[in-house]
Design goal:
The complex is a heterotrimer of chains A (124), B (107) and C (239). Chain A is mainly α and 124 residues long. Chain A is built from 4 helices and no strands. Chain A has helices spanning 14-45, 48-59, 62-89, 97-123.
Chain lengths: 124, 107, 239
């Protein structure tokens, strides 16, 4: 006897993708925060010269600025969708969850364009 | 069974991080774009009680939120074991001690 | 109009892997997906296995995965799918008995865990009064519409990844009883739903709410349970 389950999921809903992106950005940020704490902690402990050369090397590179923009996008998404989740937790928005999502994403887009406007001149 | 407590704390830290991480990002990345962070500035900031407190809380809450989030993902995949929880706790404690030690150099 | 219907076929006794059979079916007015399945069995392939009973959306037997979503076959009009290509698969996350018929046992095992029946308070001298305008049964009353079809269970990613997760239907039932003033087993049920495999696995995806044929939002029932679990932990829960 062979047992089998249909493993198909529901892919055409806003909530599914909101959750999936929340999870992906969340996992990426877990690795970032560990890296960030180790790097900043060791650089601070090693004194001014190491700190300045490490930070100078990182923050002076274009690649870093681009990665930093990716980081900002992940944090922005995770935070804004986090607001949506916190609203559910206090009992708000169950019948408006998609609208809340799109409003927050619109706000995120505006904030992100503002960040791009500040940082892009430094890259080019 | 800690599920309820960790859930509540995940929300509290989330609320704090939404507020404070926004400021953290603005001050250190976007207020003066292109400016490179130097040791003297970091040291000066960390000598003020406000920055030191906020940074310490950011360290503690950020670590909890991240590692508990990871723990949640593992539970979602039916990975439940005391040793995994213990490893995450140890990693969190280690990073917290290192972070606090480096932040409090300037007091 | 002709419908192109792809149907999932699997017989655990003889097949190692499932396959899809394709059928050309003539569409008629007001045709439901269940009519399509019956048509196939009546006129094309009598060996097709599926489950149905009432045909009017009240028995909860005919939930299937139709064009990317769990739906009640009898309440899904072919015209509402917006395409002539229909793919019918068994309800996800449950073991397949044959073809489109799944074994609902794991679903009802979890349902039983939360004790899905009222355990009345014994010490009440007077009948319980629920004023219609108090709103205390606002959520309960519409959530009692649940027909345990399992569509939410098949739509939930958390059920898919964690086989022990109680799932939306059982938790919604638990909420209906826990929030009921007449219920005596409130704390007992809370102890069951506050475990790791209970309410904490819900990450507000809303897939359950999207597919529920009765328009129930289990996410909200689960949120209400989380709130009570936290209050219980803080020693603030009365009831």
């Amino acid at each position: 006897m062979y047992t089998f389950k249909n493993r198909s999921q529901v892919w055409d809903t806003v909530g599914m993708w909101a959750w999936l992106f929340h999870r992906v950005t969340g996992l990426a940020l877990v690795f970032y925060i560990i890296l960030h704490i180790v790097l900043m902690g060791t650089s601070l402990l090693r004194g001014p010269e190491t700190f300045n050369s490490v930070l100078g090397f990182l923050m002076g590179s274009t690649l870093f600025l681009i990665l930093d923009l990716l980081l900002a996008a992940a944090v922005l998404y995770h935070g804004l969708n986090g607001i949506r989740i916190l609203l559910f937790d206090i009992g708000i928005g169950f019948n408006r969850q998609k609208e809340i999502f799109w409003v927050l994403m619109a706000a995120g887009l505006v904030i992100y364009l503002f960040l791009l406007w500040r940082v892009l001149p430094e890259i080019f | 069974m800690l599920s309820g407590w960790t859930w509540l704390f995940q929300r509290i830290t989330a609320f704090f991080l939404i507020l404070v991480l926004g400021v953290h990002f603005w001050v250190l990345h976007y207020q003066n774009p292109g400016e490179i962070l130097v040791y003297a500035d970091a040291a000066r900031r960390l000598q003020t009680a406000l920055f030191l407190t906020v940074d310490s809380l950011l360290l503690a809450f950020g670590l909890f939120h991240a590692l508990n989030g990871l723990h949640n993902v593992l539970e979602d995949f039916n990975v439940r074991s005391r040793s995994i929880t213990a490893v995450l706790l140890l990693v969190g404690a280690g990073l917290f001690i290192m972070g606090i030690y480096s932040l409090w150099q300037f007091v | 109009m002709t419908l192109n219907v792809k149907v999932f076929r699997f017989n655990p006794e003889t097949d190692k892997v499932p396959r899809f059979d394709t059928f050309k079916i003539e569409e008629f007015p007001n045709m439901a997906v269940l009519d399509v399945v019956m048509n196939i069995q009546n006129y094309h392939d009598p060996t097709l296995a599926y489950r149905c009973s009432c045909r009017i959306g009240m028995c909860g037997s005919c939930a299937m995965y139709i064009n990317g979503r769990p739906r009640l076959a009898c309440r899904t009009q072919v015209s509402s799918l917006g395409t002539k290509d229909i793919t019918i698969m068994p309800l996800p996350n449950l073991p397949i008995i044959r073809d489109l018929a799944v074994d609902m046992e794991p679903f009802f095992e979890k349902y039983k865990k939360i004790k899905p029946y009222l355990i009345p308070k014994q010490d009440l001298k007077e009948p319980v009064i629920c004023k219609p305008d108090s709103g205390e049964r606002e959520l309960i009353d519409y959530m009692l519409e649940c027909i345990t079809c399992g569509a939410c269970y098949g739509a939930c990613t958390m059920v898919a990844t964690d086989p022990h997760y109680l799932g939306p239907a059982a938790l919604t039932r638990a909420y209906c009883l826990i929030a009921d003033k007449r219920d005596a087993a409130t704390r007992e049920r809370l102890v069951i739903v506050e475990q790791s495999e209970g309410v904490w696995r819900c990450h507000t995806q809303f897939n359950c709410a999207e597919v529920c044929p009765k328009k129930i939002v289990p996410t909200q029932a689960i949120q209400q349970l989380k709130k009570r679990c936290v209050f219980k932990r803080l020693g603030l829960f009365r009831g």
